[in-house]
Amino acid sequence: MNPIVSAIISSIVDSILESAMSPVPAMPPSAPAGIVRPPLQNGPLAVMTPPSNGHAQFGDKTLRLAASLQIRDTQNRIVMSGTVQQPVPVLYKLDEYGSVQRVWVLTQEEAEVADQLIKQRASSQK
């Protein structure tokens, strides 16, 4: 084998192994910079229970989940509905049939803002 080709292949393999061995940086607790999450004022806010049999509890309402349901975690990644294992604060969007189409799991900061918004809405409805 040509020594130049051998040196190039060796260099490529070394760089791949070196990058694979470097530690992965910890993910931030909230959405990455540049990711726009919907404003909390633009949708219903609730605490969602873990989905079961195509339904989930959103506050005091039991709603059907759409076949096209997307759940986004606090880092704005799409996750499977089975990953929700405990009640979580969410912002959600309904489709034209009244089924839940989109769910955004809120970060701690977003949940605090959402809690204040829910309290304001409740006091203004009285």
Detailed description of the structure:
A hairpin with a 2-residue loop joins strand 2 (55-58) and strand 3. The longest helix is centred in the first third of the chain and has 19 residues, at 3-21. The chain has helices at 3-21, 108-125, and strands spanning 45-48, 55-58, 61-72, 78-79, 88-94, 100-105. It contains 2 helices and 6 strands. Helices cover 29% and strands 28% of the residues. It has a domain at 40-125: OB fold (Dihydrolipoamide Acetyltransferase, E2P) (Beta Barrel), CATH 2.40.50. Strands 1, 2, 3, 4, 5 and 6 form a 6-stranded mixed sheet that branches. It has 126 residues and is of the alpha+beta class. The model is unreliable at 24-28 (pLDDT under 50).
What is this structure, in a nutshell?
The chain has 126 residues and is of the alpha+beta class.
Q: Keywords for this structure?
A:
126 residues; alpha+beta; OB fold (Dihydrolipoamide Acetyltransferase, E2P); elongated
Task: Give me the secondary-structure category.
Answer: alpha+beta
Query: Could you tell me the strand content as a percent range?
Result: 25-35%
Count of alpha/pi helices = 2
Mean pLDDT: 82
Give a short account of the largest sheet.
Answer: 6 strands, mixed
CATH architecture of one domain: Beta Barrel
- Tell me the distance between the termini: 83 Å
Question: What are the low-pLDDT stretches, counting only 5+ consecutive residues below 50?
Answer: 24-28
Order of helices and strands: HEEEEEEH
Radius of gyration: 22 Å
Count of extended strands: 6
Structural shape: elongated
